[in-house]
Write a structure and sequence with these properties.
This protein is α+β, with helices and mostly antiparallel strands. It has one domain: Sandwich (Jelly Rolls), CATH 2.60.120.10. Helices cover about 20% and strands about 35% of the residues. It is built from four helices and eleven strands. The strands form two sheets. Strands 1, 2, 3, 4, 6, 7, 8, 9 and 10 form a nine-stranded antiparallel β-sheet that branches. The chain has a two-stranded antiparallel sheet with strand order 5-11. The two termini are about 25 Å apart. The chain binds fe (ii) ion (FE2). Fe (ii) ion binds next to strand 9. Its cofactor is Ni(2+); Fe(2+).
């Protein structure tokens, strides 16, 4: 289940209702999928064949189509990252820069962990959303953020998009951001 850390105060927010209430106030969508639907061999598998990716997508077909129907996503795929990913350190270096997109960034975590760092309202400042399997998040279009892995360096997630142009990251220069 997701947890929040507000960077300015180090305050942590846990518990599904509390996390959802906080994220809703920050215009970030938060939902949860049932991880028990996933075949057990895919719970901790981070290098996936095309067949396994297809199996994952079909397991969550109803959830994906429901989310897509409500929010206009037209394409979806699976992203799997781990220490087996070629050039992972370079990839993470590229990821770890505050940016925006012209469409929202949706991730449904199906295995492993990941973290979104998001610029909140003026009073809150930047906050971290630590995600684990079952967590579904959408960072709104135009909201500065970046995504990275956590200590275990492994994640599998479903990504949903409205159109390919929305994938492009526009750098957001923010001198107030402290890593
Ligand atoms: Fe992004």
């Amino acid at each position: 289940m997701a947890e929040i850390r507000i960077r300015n105060t180090n305050e942590r927010i846990a518990g599904e209702d509390e996390v959802r209430a906080f994220l809703t106030k920050q215009n970030v969508l938060y939902e949860h999928w049932d991880t028990s639907k996933l075949p057990s061999e895919l719970h901790e598998k981070f290098v996936l064949s095309d067949d396994e990716k297809a199996q994952l997508l079909s397991t969550y077909d109803a959830e994906i189509r429901d989310l897509a129907g409500r929010r206009g996503y037209k394409v979806w795929d699976i992203v799997a990252l781990s220490e087996a990913t070629p050039n992972l350190p370079e990839l993470l270096k590229k990821f770890e820069q505050v940016h925006t997109h012209t469409e929202d960034e949706v991730r449904a975590i199906t295995a492993g962990r990941g973290i979104f760092i998001i610029k909140g309202d003026d009073e809150t400042g930047y906050f971290d959303v630590e995600l684990s399997a079952g967590d579904v998040i959408s960072v709104p279009e135009g909201q500065p953020h970046f995504f990275t892995l956590m200590e275990n360096k492994a994640i599998v997630a479903v990504r949903l998009f409205i159109e390919p142009a929305g994938w492009v990251a526009d750098p957001f220069e923010d001198p107030t951001f402290v890593k």
